[in-house]
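Below: protein 1.
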Amino acid sequence: MRHFTSVLVVVSLTATGASAQSVLERVLGQIDGATNLTQVNGVYANIAESIGDPGTIATPTITTTETVPVGLADAPDDTYMYSIYRSGFGSFHISAGDIGTTFTAGDGTAAGTFLSNVGVDSVTVNDDGTLTINAVSSSQPVSVYNSSTDSDITFPAGPLSETILLADDTFVYLYFGEPFLFSAAIAADYADRHKTVYPVLTQDITTTVGGTSSIPGLSTTIDGSITNIITGVTTATAEAALGVVTATEFTLPTFDLGDMATTALGAVNTGAITLGVNAAVDEAVTTTTRAISAAMTQIGGAADTGALVLNVASNASAVNGSIQNTMIAVNGSIGSASTTALGAVNTGNIVSGVDAAVQGIVGMSGQNTSGL
């Protein structure tokens, strides 16, 4: 005869608001730290739980430094961008520090005097580094040198309005020790021909990813409360004075709040855990012979080992289902008020038993036969 032992380990758990661990985490921690327990071959848990705890996450801190070329946004103020010139009048240079500036002819500055002399009405250095030229009375061709493309653009005499663009891949290079906005192709060509273009100006960009940061957690309170605060009049609505006698009338408003109901639930567990032993028996009987085949399968643990079975509803948060009404200097009525506040509720069950299936075959060999 085989013997079957069903082992049920009952664990008493008390959750507190200070604990950030779940019930299962704490149970498994107790098992790991115990030295006097029978071997447990299975943990079966059916848990409903609410734990209010804002937490933090910690990830490896990774710091990377990348060397990148300096573009227009980080160019030194003296970086050479454009030059406006006309034969016999010299040149007017525009640098990165002039971005966002409009130069106007005749404004009393050296640039304004130059523009008046060459017949250019105004020059605007736009925020994106482009150059807009307006000329209304140029009597001679006016040229503009664009350092990023290493090209001259010559405008004919007469009125004009033109916007000059920088090359797309423009970075700051040192040419004869001076910073210039060159495209990569122009810088390579200059370096090949003149051997005087130094490497592009660069800057180190440091990026830090990871570390400990806060993450949103569950609220420490399950709040299903209702709060009504109503205040009445604050000044007199009518006042009469006669000699030293004063009469003041206040008109108080009336409110009807009607019915109020609130329900606040913590953890609710309506699950079930079913464990047991399955048995199957086959039997064949004749008058003189009898054959029996039996098979049993242990579910939820072997006969010599234990099984930890948990069916828990655990609530580690405050549950607030209150109704609060504050009425000051008013008339009013409140209908029925009902409130329900539940913490952990467990209506589940654990079933440990034996299921059996029996099949019988009965035969006859000339005598009375007894079957299963």
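Below: protein 2.
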Amino acid sequence: MSMHYWVAQHISDLFRNEPRNIGVFVRNEEQMAARFIGETENSQIDGRKLKGFSRPEVYRQWVEFWKDQIPRNRPEDLVKSSGSHYRVVSAGKVSDTDNDTPEMVVNYLYSLLVSEGGLKEALENEEDSLEDPAISLQDDLITTLMENELLESDDLFIHHPIRKNVKIPGKNLSHTPAFVQENGSLYVMEPIDFTQSRKKYSKDHAGLSAYMFRDIRDSISNVSSIAIVKVTEEDLEVEDVQYGMAVLENEADIVNWLDSKQKSQFIDSCIEVAA
């Protein structure tokens, strides 16, 4: 079973055209759910959380309009009604949702696409997050990058360091990849762990990452997409992993973190770009 989803965006400066993701809509065959920046548990908007909006009252009006349309279960109409500064764009679908409700899926996507917590927060919302090794892959990456003096910090003096969680505008959405590096070209890097027990989340992460790579590449020239994966031969026998790897291979260069040669070549290339 799968669910389609849409992303609400705010564009404060039309000339620069740098959309910010501010909400998510999810629909299954029967119902629709949504979540927006600033919402409290009782679905009210907390003005204290709207400091990033120059005119928060306009944002409130758009959220009220969107919520009024949600019971009609027609997000296509929301796309058509988009304005200059506020818009809704179709973003794709989440597969293998099993018995998850639209509310569960919208919270997962909100953490992934809107919240500053990103993928880590999304995974922490899952029941088995405490034993989920997907987070340790990113931690291992950070440790390795720091050991090689590649990760941006106040006491690191190199021309082109690797930076974490930088917002990058795509053609349709604004994205926050795990890591980026710039030196003439933009290098977009995202870790995906296929060794975790719940393979469907790895598959979904792979699909979202592939979409991100393509959307950024459609907006910016000279982009290199790098998927840093953790996958074993045993994992490659699983259908969800096969699918996830296939969509990544279409959109990015693959680095298997468990392959010492690939890992070393990746670090060497980052050092070369940094210099």
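Helices lie at 56-69, 75-80, 102-113, 118-124, 134-147, 199-219, 239-251, 260-274.
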